[in-house]
Amino acid sequence: MKKNISMILAVAMLIGMLAGCSGSKPEASSAAAPAPTASAASEAASDAAAPAPEGQILVRIATQMAADNNTTIAMNVFGDYVMEKTNNAIKVEVYPNSQLGAEDIVMQQVLTGTLEMSPISSAVLSTVVPEVNIFSFPFLFNDLDTYIDMCWDEGFRERIFNAVEERTGCKTLGFTIGIGRGVSNTKREIRTVDDMKGLKIRTIGSPIIIDTFNSFGATATNVPWKEVYTALQQGLVDGEDSSVIANLDQKFIESNKFYTQLDTMFQNHLLVVSSELWNKLTPEQQQIFVEAGVKADEYGFECSRTDIKDSYERAAKEYPDFKITSDLTPEEKQTFVDACRPVWDKYKPEVGEDLFNYTYDLMQKMVKK
Questions:
Q1: For all residues of the chain together, what is the average pLDDT?
Q2: Predicted TM-score (pTM) of this structure
Q3: What digits encode the pLDDT tens for the residues 106-135?
Q4: Are 152 and 102 in the same domain?
Q5: Rounded to whole angstroms, how far apart are CA atoms 106 and 70?
Q6: At what angle do helices 144-152 and 283-318 cross, to 10 degrees?
Q7: Of 179, 275, 334, 364, which has the fewest beta carbons less than 10 angstroms from its beta carbon?
Q8: Tell me, what CATH number does 184's domain have?
Q9: Where are the alpha helices (DSSP H) in 126-256?
């Protein structure tokens, strides 16, 4: 059942804490590929979209990412497919780089129907749809390949998509890009949980993520994303939870000296469609949207596989003194897993036993293959 709009607005202040991941640039990489046609359409558009020709449906997609970021390009892939298959009966405009507002504002607009679509990060969406916190369970997903396989699993997709629709009335068409998160810092190499103790680590302001890093013995600190560079420079934090890609794009690497690829969690963006738009579409158009969502996922997941390798190579070339640790032994990684098990117990009821058990059991089967 669709939640009352007043409930959605009531969580706005809580969502604001998560806006640290919605700063001037994203926690992701830039793609070398040029932005497709839908991007060109949005670049040509004015700040306020011009009225669509009579009979044409205008779809605006807002992202927090730069125009050349893979998440934004995935939205262009989506838009190009929709416009081609509908013979431009539907026009898609992609607005990158927070042009239509910060992520918390954009989410409210989609949920209330004043904006048509947006890829919304799981950390932000979880404030309204707690089941989405499944993506933030530490070490639930074994590695990138099994994470991507999980995202294609029909039972998993159905459970997540249904949860979003039941709580908001909105449709979900896919998961856009997911890169395993690690931890970088200015102090020392991190190989076991003991190395984390005493470090002040900037994280997204999500309770489950904060609890995870506190369980490691670190002090999790929610610094707005656009302030992280300065916080590292001034020593207000010792490190941050993101990726090598973010370190390069945001220049955190100028302060950070060490990075460990923990794969603590694989966060992503869920492509959410307002109920107002969805109900305007014919069944044939809805099917085209579903197909376009698959196309966007295919593009995004392929980028996920290549981005890590590319970022490692770029860091080694541009910052040879930046030490990347990606060879933790199973025993070393297990020290982190053991430390954060209480986090699982705390948040299982929030995501629901059915979703958690389904995800956990399927992950175990995938690992044993």
A1: 86
A2: 0.80
A3: 999 999 999 999 999 898 899 999 999 999
A4: yes
A5: 19
A6: 170
A7: 364
A8: 3.40.190.170
A9: 144-152, 154-168, 207-215, 228-233, 244-249
